[in-house]
């Protein structure tokens, strides 16, 4: 249960206990299956809005003091019902934007991967060579996370971002190597990855899928080249 109004959580020695919930946006209306990346104009589908509402309900009883979003439409639209449940506005932070990707704007299918024009982009999957380096994603995401932690010290905050940045952040917080196989990410649409802090130290990462009952009907085109999952 959250503490009473105005009372921050602390350990017995006064160390603040803070929770930051990192939410992935809901399903996007994308009938052409374009890898949209940072392109503007991609909004939540009707199903995606239902996902956002499910996540807002999941977080409604939490002691949330600030809601921050990536600047992209799909993230802001996911953040709005979460913020509304707490009487808050959505603040935008560029550090939580989708990762950069050289395939942005292309239709995601096997032909994209087989096109010889793209082969130089596959040279180094550990960096990766087709987009924003994992190390840079981790740095900006961790900076944004720490800033929000300080702003809601002793309470809870919410961030709405994107699959690859969230998964990279999680691996960075847990001290794991940043390179990974895209199919092994545990970060479904409208999921909540929660980081528990004691002071500035992350001590636990938790995960929930409030919209899990809606996932079977969703089509998920991720930020990774050629990765399409249902």
UniProtKB/TrEMBL annotation:
CDD domains: HP_PGM_like. SMART domains: PGAM. Pfam families: His_Phos_1. GO terms for cellular component: cytoplasm. InterPro entries: His_Pase_superF_clade-1, His_PPase_superfam, PGM_Phosphatase. One of its GO terms (molecular function) is phosphatase activity. This is Fructose-2,6-bisphosphatase.
